[in-house]
Model the fold of this input.
Amino acid sequence: MGFKEDVGTKFIFVTGGVISGVGKGIAAASLGSILKARGYSVNIQKCDPYLNVDSGTLNPAEHGECFVTSDGAETDLDLGHYERFLDQNLTQSSSLMSGRVLREVLENERAGKYRGKTVQYIPHVTDLMKQKILEASKGFGIHIVEIGGTMGDIEAQAFTEAIREIGLSVGRENTLYAHVVYLPYLETSKEFKTKPAQNALRDARNSGIFPELLLTRSEKPAPPKLKEKLALFGGISKEAIAMLPNAESIYQVPISLELQGIGDYVVSRLNLKPSKANIKKWEDLTDKMAEAKKKSVSIGLVVKYVDNEDSYFSVTEALRSAGWDNGVIVKIKYISAEKVESGELKLDDVAKEVDGFLVPGGFGNRGIEGKILAASYALENEIPYLGICLGMQVAAIAGARRAGLTKANSTEFDSDTPDPVVTTMEDQKGKELTGGTMRLGNYDCEIKEGSLAYKLYGNNLIQERHRHRYEVNAKYLTDLEEAGLIITGTNPQTNLPEILEAAPELNHPFYIAAQFHPEFTSRPTNPQALFNGLIQAVV
Ligand code: GLN
Done:
């Protein structure tokens, strides 16, 4: 890459200061959204400084959910925000972790590609980072790049250097650095403190990054005059500062940025052709949310992780969106599958508090019997049930047991089960058990006409995203039928079962489960069909 090279794309680099976990991803996605609302083509990419190759092996209790793109990338949950805010499908190129870059550098080194040179962070790692960022930006008018963590972290330094160098080579008129900082509030003196933000800006400049857009996050609304202080002591122009206190809903952030003039500032700072932003869809959504406040329903999520609400983020967003669309607020109750399994939580009691059950995706056998119990309880007690991935597998196990195969199980949880109603298929046997080896991303599903699935999708061929290794075993379909469960969605190429539902004879109000993850295609203003169906059934 030569010096000063106009690649035809404007770059916005979003970094974090003070502390992480304040919603940098949502800020970056919202920025993208108000620019897309002006008609520009926008792409967005997350660069995570972890040494992991992808998010597939990260613990959701620590990192939040693993989001899956249609091309099968296992990514950080921020990709989910990006897709929902931009209403746009992203690909593997939008998710870059240091581990992926380092792996490639080491492979190149082993292959002798560096021709005897000393292999170093600068330039070898940073050059590859720059290359991956530029590749992802190709064909887009604006490319937003969010760097995970906070600036100054040792592990983030290579990305910091890479984005500094991109700014140098594409020129200031094509680059904007945005810094997201946290404003602490001191209860004792009743004031917001700007010093940490000032320090964070200074730290960024020490690394050669000159932020010209400042997004401040705070728990409560800070007085507008604080912008003057931040401008003066932080060295940022006043119109380039946005205050983002906690909003009632994350989908109000684009409106808030727009009202503070950030979209116009970015357009003029990057010399883009001015155009009017159309953010009506966010305004309409806000109205819908306000309208929905009059009524609420409650969905019980039977899960392994109950302490980190990010662990099932796309699922809860899909539920909420389906709620707004149906004029209700969806309250989410996290039900510990382990407590159901141990008997500490009785499903009879849980059922009094919730209007429906949802068993989302999951791995490993912790709490698995609790999930099987929930799937079986919902079937027998006519409680609306949506099963996702593992939630379909436990429904199949529950069905097989109901048909008399009392030891039926998945080979994931009991490798010696006499009735492997869920198991790996022949072509998967012997494959590694970790690291991007699952059935990932989009696959076709053919839907039987006349089924509940057909009614919900209104279509007989759909594509949804997958992330799993085990499959419902076709050998047991007659046993499942005996229990009242039928397969209404099948992969046309492999014949693998994709959708399971209660047979019409059961007259169940709503019982459906999918091997794929419908939550990843749900959008705030366009909720996914299965979620919509569940909420309609409970309303
Ligand atoms: N553990 C199951 C499998 O690997 C389900 C995976 C999931 O729910 N995402 O098939």
The radius of gyration is 25 Å. Residues 293-538 form a domain with the Rossmann fold fold (CATH 3.40.50.880). Residues 361-363, 389-390, 393, 412, 467-470 surround glutamine (CB under 6 Å). The chain is about 35% helix and 20% strand.
